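1st attempt posting a full record on here, be nice pls
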Amino acid sequence: MTVMDTVLCNDPEVKRLALAALEECTDLQAFGRRCLEILLNSLVSAKADEACGAPYGERSPGRTNSRNGYRERGLLTPAGDIRVRIPKLRTGTFFPEDLIERYCRADRALVAAVAEMYVLGISTRKVEEVAGALGVSSMSKSQVSRLCESLDSEVAAFRRQRFDGVRFAYLWLDAAYVKCRVDGRSVSQAVVTAIGLDDTGHKRFLGVDCVDTESYDGWREFLSDLRSRGVAAGEDGVQLVVSDAHEGLRRAIAESFQGAAWQRCITHLMRNVAGHIRGKGDQRVAREAMKAAFAQKSPLVARACYQRAAEEVARLSPAAGRVMMEAEEEALAYLAFPVSHRSKIRTNNVQERANREIKRRTNVVQGFPSRESLIRLVGAALIEADGEWSARCVISRPSLAHAWRRPEAPAPSEESVLAARQAADRIISAAVDLGGEQG
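the predicted structure (as tokens):
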């Protein structure tokens, strides 16, 4: 039998209070709320007795103070609204800060629950409805937003975290666009994020910020902040940066992470190429040719296939062919890295999935009243995702070590180059035929 069971069975006064509370309540939710109110007020009274040096109404030589009435305050809890009677003292002040937070009308547990619902993508209006169902009478949308300000310190610490002594082999960069009110106008803001793969093989969010536009200046400031917090470049730092071909971003990467290779996301490249081709059938042929090139494991065959695919695409659209030819080095940068890493580093899918989760949360809000509220929600969502990633290893540590120790490939012989071209002719021809048949 627990201590609580013993008290209820052996103490007639406690049993009487419990039965009285049950009689005045219509359901278990109301009963729980009433019991919480009785218990909390009893604890507050006991704390006041400790401050006075003697129990209430008792004459004692050890008494150092006495009560002088009560002041009532409402408190919102997960069980609903309750009234707390806080004793006033004749000398000095008294407040049970270990039980109730000063100047706050909501219990910490309710604040945490509201913040969790908000982070999970539940709108403030729906949070208000849920709180009402729990018995909380006054929980407006603005009050929900104020309660969620408790996330600010956690998000700020997350954005300021340092990475001294941590090596990151790969870095993914991207932006998602969200509506936000700035200077009284609803405008599109770029939420820029960085994801790194550390030397233990785990993905980590390294930074998040909100900028006016996805420009060179915005990216330069964001990447400079990463560098200042310990995300190193060079021989023992970031080896490859993956992103789309935004001109301002490319320039900022080249200046901030000198010595690191840049991988142009092949998914974005395929979309760019298809955008220069009119017919759906021709777009299908171009995609199949490019997919066949990117599927090759041998760097020599992959390059030969890419060049052969560019020739086929140029026949369909000269502009699309030029895009492919100009992008060859950046599109095939992943070939310099271990084979087992390539499928993860040749696209920006890591960021695309993160952006989908960001949009899922932000679409509920639709328009944010300020940048601060936008960063609060996105930052809290990233903290949650970062915690989940810490339990999943993307690349094993021994395998990841090869990202920093890549042997220099010997120059290919004329025979191997010729064999690669012949293989490329067969592979791309088959891919073109497949794309034509699908049409």
